[in-house]
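Practice problem: predict the structure.
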Amino acid sequence: MNNLIINSNKIRGSRINQYILLNEIGRGGHGVVYQGYHDTKPNEPLAIKIIEDTGNLDLLLIEPELLSLLNHPNIIRLKDYFIHAGKLVIVTEYINGINLQSYLEQRGRLTVSEVINFLTQMADALVNAHANNIIHRDIKLSNILVIDDNKNLRFVLVDFGISRMAEGIQTVKRIAGTYYYMAPEQLRGRPCEQSDLWALGVCAYTLLTGIKPFEAKLEEELSHKILFSIPQAPSEIIETIEPELENIIFHLLEKQLINRITCANELLNELKRLFRLSTKHKIPKKKINEPNSVTHINTWEQKNLKEIQINWVKFWILVFLATVPYFIVGDIISISGLFLFFIGQEKRKKFYTLSSVIVIFSGLLVSINVQEKIFNIILDVNQAENASLYSMIQLIQLLVSLPFTLASTHHFIKIRRLKEDLLLHKMLREFSQNREKIINLIKNFVDIHWGNMNVHQKYIELLFLDKRFEEAIVESKLALYVDPYNFAATLFLANGYFEVGLYEKCIEVCNGYLSVSNYSFEFSDMKEKCEKFLEG
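Answer:
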């Protein structure tokens, strides 16, 4: 056995160090997995993996070294690893199950409750892995084992062969993984913890619907879909689905990291909340032929709308409390002016805008005049005779009013974010049904809130998806006018020029960004592609 050449007909009873082999249970491109046991514990089955690829031993040792840091019921447990006859041997617990890809093919798609269970177990596993700064980078159905005991499904994450410790800014491009499950940033060579969440979203979508969210025959076409297309809503594919679960899956498949669920712990909290709702109430299932059916239980959209209403109430109460120290009257006039200004900007009416300026200044004058008269009555002296007392009262007014002002601002910002979230998820759910309507809806939002880079980038994504590259170029330039060093907008602009064949312009954009950040391989690759086209 020193040369580790194992006769397939005589596996049973073969020995590697203190381990006894029983039978082959798996074979891949890098090695063979056998079932076996330690010679002192014959009743404890183990999986013994022999890595045949003896190229870079340091790279091969990554998997067991990372696994040794982890201890979780949904992550394969490492028992031992060693070098024998020049080959790496990894010993793990034996999982009496099959991979999820095979399970899906044999049984068909999973139920909604099973998908929630799957996401919960995998999210908990990723909380453990990410807490140890380990990014899996190759989460897919074939790398997850499932144990079905007819009562509960247990899911176990395996194969950490291409995992890496989480890093800071990367200067080396790494796109290892399986294309179907790779997040946009991973395709660009910048995997992060949220890339694992994207892959988990792809798995959940596939288990729920029976199809992958992004499919294509060629890698280039698949990459383009992952970068720019929007998957069909699960509610359009399966007969019933909890809207809350669909929302979570869409959140996992957000292309921009800022919109995606931020971490495994956040995902776990969302799933726990969903579980509490489903046990306390029966969450209404959204039927494909009843997209606007009214229910008595809050869906995520109804919950957001209710939260917006609650925040509006809190906002107005806090605004009132903030104006009390200033005797209200003038501030109410000024606030009315601010609303006139907002309406004028939203509806693009110059009359409202000009009127708002007059009303705001009128409110300020009234506030100053009323305040001075009241002080004179209370103090029974004029301001000049008691300037220090007058200043002290103004300071007290400010200190009392400021916390309410800041709190009201917080709730106003929260309202805007909730509205933005509703808009973005409306786009994801309904884009395949009426893309022109959704594009116009996003465009109107961008026109009103022109400084909102998040929605602006979404709008540019939709233009790319609809192959309206000239418009995407214009919008990218407008976005860069707001934020000249925005990475995503610059990349959109370069891609837009590339798509319309303006390779010199594309190279110019790439050079401009590389002059500021010379480690950006996204722009280096784009520049190289353009140069090849020009040479050809």
